[in-house]
Description:
Blueprint (H helix, E strand, L loop, with lengths): L1 H4 L6 H35 L2 H49 L3 H6 L2 H26 L1 H16 L4 H15 L2
Helix pairs in contact: 2-3, 2-6, 3-5
Amino acid sequence: MKVFFRYFKPHLISLAVVMLLLFGQAACDLSLPDYMSDIVNKGITSGDTMYIVKAGFQMMGIAFLSAFCTVIVGLIGARMAAGICRNLRQDVFTRIESFSSAEMEKYSTSSLITRTTNDITQIQQLIVMLIRIVFYAPILGVGGVIHALEKDKSMSWIIALSVGLLLVMIFP
Length: 172
């Protein structure tokens, strides 16, 4: 793993930007239910159509901002994964060039090409998934817990129980 992380080093700025965008996306996604509850509590109950329209447009703006963050995270993540895998392919190729004749006889050229292409493509897909899902899920989960606790502290035992059960299921 330590060897693999050195490929991330040139992309630390991109990774930091991605993390900031993921925090922004999570903040946008977590704020939408508040707008929905305000529409129901303030707009529908009082019959204030203008408030409903105004809150609806604000929700659309937040949704577009969240979508923008998602697209930029996907773009930067894909570029970062492609750059990492480009360097990895170059190192694998250099390593294969240093094989002795006996080692080259063990593996056919087509086998080496197929293995390296497939394996590095899988690594590239893993990096993109890591960025888009594995990093985002904990940010959204922690943000959701914080947001719920801000709304009603008396229900914190339900959240603690839920988080505890999730952790037991994820990490047996």
